[in-house]
Amino acid sequence: MGNPPPRPEGDAIPAGMAASPQPTVTAPSGPADKKKIAKIAGVAVVLVGGLGAGIYLGWPFLMGLFGGSPFATPDGTIKYVAIGLADNKPQVLWEAMPASYKQTLNEELKKSMANTDPEVHAKSVAVLQKLTGVLRDKKPLIIETVNGLSQGAAGGLPPELTDNWDDIVGLLDILTKGKMADMDWVQNPNLGDMLADEGSEIMAMAGLEKLLDKGLQENVGKGPKSMMEVREGLRNIEVIIVSQTDSEATLKVVSKELTGDPDDAESGEFVMVRTEERWLPKEMVDKLDEGSDEKNLLLLALKDLQRNIPISSMAEKKMTEEEKNQILALLDVVDQALDSANQATNSQELTAAVMGAAGGVMGAVMAGGQDGGGGLGSLFGTGGGAQPPAGFPGTGFGTLPGNSKGKGKGKGGGNQQLTQAQRMDWTFGGQQRNLQQWKGQSAANVITLFGQPNPANARAVPGGGEWTYTNLKITDAQGNPHTAITFVVLNGVVSDIRLVAN
């Protein structure tokens, strides 16, 4: 029972995926739910099984308070961790964990990041930091541009995003400048340091406090309605030892703030066991015991997350030189687009920068998949065999979602689903969204916004092709409506744009 959780064979934790969890408090609804208070009040201890990171918190004060190590007793452990979380110091969770558990987690993370290429890592961090700066500095323009692009379609940026924009950017800033940005830390990670630094900063964010307060206020029934009340409850928690031996203790806790009911503030009894000089909930230790299907909750959660993030496969094996060069080239495309976005002074310039990045990234990924098993395509899960559109040989651009042949209006058929371009209002010679300004743009940008050309509307010409898009809303300089446009593509670049007569 006291053995540390074994490391799963072959599992890999995607770099940068470690997260700092927050305590969640739910008020019991009645006598039948009294046992829940044990998990509520002891939430910090329960979460130890799924967390890692830490340093000492208030050590001299707590040494005197408990007469030695706060982890020497089960009640001391609960109080120590509760006070630490109340003070926005999630590192206490790591400190409450047995040494072998911490070693296992650190070793697993180190193994998962062993193939990280220093040059790719440095470039990725630089791009992410630049992205954070653009999101911060260009906030009004970005919101204006995105909402403008959604004209004629449902939505735009949701209030949940715009209202919390600064907090989201602040979170990105913490993460992109934290431990994962340091290659030395990546090569020899310590989750304790991460929780002590990034974890504390994130818990102390005013935006997070506001979000948690909103969630608590929406809870029906008794219980705390703000994080201030939660912290007060954690600081004032009372732990009652019902019985205790050298290796096991039965306890219950009392907290009227956490239950919201002075007459029903006492929990049911629960058991803690001594494991490697630490006291942990018996239920958690049993689950992490050897032979259990839940040997390590954190690693299993990160493994599941990795399955759903194709790019995380880059951490599973050492990159070939070809893969490395392709990724660096892709990052250069994004980096240059961010420079353009940072210099943009209006929505049109910002849109061009974003489309340039999207088209370049899409082209690099799909072109990388043409080798049938290697390169960038295999890293991003695109696979091989992408077929180029008519008149655009060798580019690797495959059919995009929402642009298959099917029913619709316009010459040569149309699309089953509207593309981004079909939902927008265009001009030909006008002031807003002037299609004539697409001359000189890359073919990748056209495909990004207008979609894959329908074969019925694509004609090959020497060195390129002519792509006609239908079902559009276009107004020419004289105010006449049109529904189709033709892009003449030569050597991967738009050389001419022709308005198609109705």
Overview of this structure, please?
- The chain is of the alpha+beta class and 502 residues long.
- Among the domains are: 31-112 and 201-306, no CATH class; 387-502, no CATH class.
- It has helices at 36-41, 43-46, 59-66, 74-86, 91-95, 99-112, 118-137, 139-149, 159-162, 165-176, 183-187, 191-203, 206-218, 227-235, 256-259, 282-288, 297-307, 321-343, 347-368, 375-379, 443-450; strands at residues 238-244, 248-254, 270-275, 278-281, 405-406, 414-415, 425-428, 458-461, 464-469, 473-476, 481-482, 485-490, 493-499.
- A four-stranded antiparallel β-sheet has the order 1-2-3-4.
- A hairpin with a 4-residue loop joins strand 10 and strand 11 (481-482).
- The model is unreliable at 4-67, 307-311 and 366-416 (pLDDT under 50).
